[in-house]
Design a protein that fits this description.
By secondary structure, the protein is mostly helical. The protein is built from 19 helices and 2 strands.
């Protein structure tokens, strides 16, 4: 009886949310140690703890915020460790762990499958291991393709060996929506380079729509090419993700083009075609990869506010991106539309959205807003000389794991850096998952309370 109690307590404490949260913390701490080693620093000395911790958190949380220049501060091994951390963070702790366990031939029990299902936001437990295998294969295809395509762009200027490394690093960073770059100006010097303006955004988009959507696209294309008679019926998640993503891409590109058109320090220096390319690039990266082909510190307040809104919405579920997700945004939009139309049910593409999903969407947005407000307030208190719009921009960028910055990241106080580290972590693991890890599994109850109306709005 005593042994049974001892074996029961650990399993009760180590819940799925806690496994995921502690897993990310362990990877961040390991990455911090690796990035402090003399072999990771270009000068060959031990690195600063806060710099290593910030960079490791930013990499694991696929954010891209930096306090030092990645290409000059870190050696090749430091850059390699950052790329590795980005890859683990993009795949997710459970996916990366599952892949390693598959390599050594370990079988998975119910707890492991449940953890994988929850970390991937998969609708069911069946086929989760096969899903992990397809995720790894999809990731390799996109990243290697992007690496070789960008290598051709970088080779004339940097040589074959250097171009191969630049292509691989930026491809991994782009597909995982991280935004880490090895150039001092990120990608400003490639602002009007057509191949870069196609390769990087496409990697970001495919990395940000989710693996299940990519898989459904592949099945549809395969059936069209083979002329299969079976009709592919896309699920509601696919329709919402693709339509919302396309809408936001078009709207954001147009908005940046109009707002920044005459700003000589951003878009104004380019011709009409160049302005369109820069607007397209800026329309993609806030969702949620922190590459930049302009100086965000010289953007208009309107441009910064549009970027903040896009960063907050973020990418899609099951992807490498952050934010509240496109599906959450769409669900709340459809809910608002239903209320204005006086409808009792929320419909989207002739399907009713369950009440449980509406509650979850409201919880995600409320928790996200609360996190951003707390982070913004703390940074504003510790660094009162920084403009509010820039503080808000930095906080949202950290929470949505975007990595865009107006240039204040390296100059803020140590306390503000610690706040950004915590914000990046919360944004990566998710507000609801983190709260669930603290509170533990909910206890079932049969108690029901009476309804009562109150005034709202």
């Amino acid at each position: 009886m005593f042994l049974k109690k001892l074996s029961f307590r650990p399993s009760k404490f180590v819940t799925v949310p806690r496994t995921i949260c502690f897993g990310f913390l362990a990877v961040i701490l390991l990455g911090t140690l690796l990035l402090m080693l003399p072999i990771s620093i270009a000068e060959g000395t031990w690195g600063d703890f806060i710099t290593a911790l910030f960079t490791s958190t930013s990499a694991v949380c696929v954010t891209g915020l930096v306090v030092v220049d990645t290409g000059t501060y870190f050696s090749f091994w430091g850059q390699f460790f950052i790329m590795l951390l980005v890859q683990i963070g993009g795949l997710g702790y459970m996916t990366a762990t599952t892949f390693l366990l598959l390599l050594v031939g370990r079988r998975f029990g119910l707890r492991e499958r449940l953890a994988i299902q929850q970390s991937l936001d998969s609708p069911g437990l069946s086929g989760v291991v096969q899903l992990v295998k397809s995720i790894i294969a999809t990731t390799l295809v996109f990243e290697l393709t992007g690496a070789f395509l960008m290598m051709a762009v970088f080779a004339p200027q940097h040589g074959f060996d250097r171009a191969l490394w630049l292509g691989l690093f930026h491809s991994v960073s782009a597909f995982n929506n991280a935004g880490f770059g090895l150039f001092p100006d990120n990608l400003i010097s490639y602002a009007t380079n057509l191949p870069i303006n196609l390769i990087i955004p496409l990697l970001i988009i495919f990395g940000g729509i989710g693996y299940q959507v990519i898989q459904e696209m592949y099945i549809w294309l395969r059936d069209r090419i083979t002329r299969s008679r079976e009709r592919v019926v896309f699920p509601l998640n696919f329709k919402i993700v693709t339509s919302t993503t396309i809408f936001l891409l078009v709207l954001s590109t147009l908005a940046f083009f109009l707002v920044e058109y005459r700003n000589e320090e951003t878009f104004g220096q380019y011709n009409f075609t160049g302005k369109l390319m820069v607007a397209w690039f800026q329309g993609v990266v806030p969702r949620t990869a922190g590459f930049n082909s302009i100086d965000y510190g010289k953007m208009t307040d309107a441009g910064l506010f549009i970027t903040i809104a896009l960063m907050f919405i973020g990418a899609s579920p099951g992807s490498t991106g952050g934010g509240i997700k496109t599906t959450t945004f769409r669900v709340l939009f459809e809910c608002t539309k239903a209320v204005l139309q006086g409808k009792s049910e929320v419909l989207c593409y002739q399907r009713e959205i369950p009440t449980a999903l509406l509650r979850k969407a409201i919880g995600v947005v409320f928790g996200s807003l609360t996190t951003v407000i707390i982070a913004t307030t703390l940074i504003a208190i510790s660094d009162p000389d920084v403009e509010f719009i820039r503080v808000l921009f930095e906080a949202v960028s950290a929470f949505a794991t975007v990595g865009l910055s107006t240039g204040i990241t390296a100059s803020v106080s140590v306390f503000a850096k610690l706040v950004l580290i915590a914000t990046m972590y919360v944004g990566r693991v998710g507000v609801l998952l983190l709260v669930s890890a603290f509170l533990g599994d909910p206890s079932p109850t049969l108690v029901r309370y009476p309804d009562e109306n109150l005034l709202v709005g």
